[in-house]
Every structure is written in C-alpha cells, then in structure tokens.
Design goal:
There is one protein chain. The radius of gyration is 15 Å and the shape is globular. It is mainly alpha-helical. The chain is 78% helix and 0% strand. It has one domain. Helix 1 runs antiparallel to helix 2, helix 2 runs antiparallel to helix 3 and helix 4 crosses helix 5.
Amino acid sequence: MLLFATCAGIQFGISIGAIVGLVAGLMFDFVVSTPAGLGSIALGLTGATAGLYLYFFPTQIWWLRLISIAVVSVIGEIYILIARAMVGLSVVPELRLLKVIAVVSAINVCLSPAFLSVTRWTLRERKKIS
C-alpha cells in the first residue's frame, strides 16, 4: 500500500498521490485493528509527499525516482508511527524500528520498477473512441 501510494504520487503529482494514499489507507484500515482513518491519513500524507517529486524535479530521471522512493518510504513509515502516537497507540522507539524502516525502504526500491508500471497502467486516462 505504501509503495503504491508513493509510486502514484511520484508519477502523477500531489493530488493523485494523496487520493490514492487515502483510498489505499482506507483499505488498509479495514484489515488491521487500528482506529479507522489512521492508515488513510498516514498514506494520504505519504502520497502527497511523493507528489512533491514532480514539483522539484519535473524531468523524470530513473535513478532520482529510486532515491525519492527510498526517502518517501522512510518518511511514510515515520508518518505511520506519528499517527499511531497521536491516537495513543503504543510506539516504543527501539533499534528494531530502524531495521524495519530500512527493510521497508530497500524492498520498496527493489519492487518500484514493477509498481511504477502498474500505477502508470491503472491510473492512466482512457480516451473514448466514438
């Protein structure tokens, strides 16, 4: 979910990234037992943060995208931790959290070429042929 919102934001901008993040977060909220809307807020912010990529780098450079996906993945995990702390869920700062964030970021970078293709395919505008 985090990677899909990140890839949508990087390819289509702030508004599409935020909408995809909100919808993906809502689907995530239906599966886990956290308060409803917690994942929506965190993933919506993550998608919007990823959408800033087009603002700062209008030309699409492949290696810069990968670095941006890694950075936004780390920021997205921090957003989730902040959202959990704001509603009173336990967030214990441990060394284990840094390992989890590093693994999530590395896996997102490895899977991002496939997800960039999937988001390009699913979110493209379809033209009506009349």
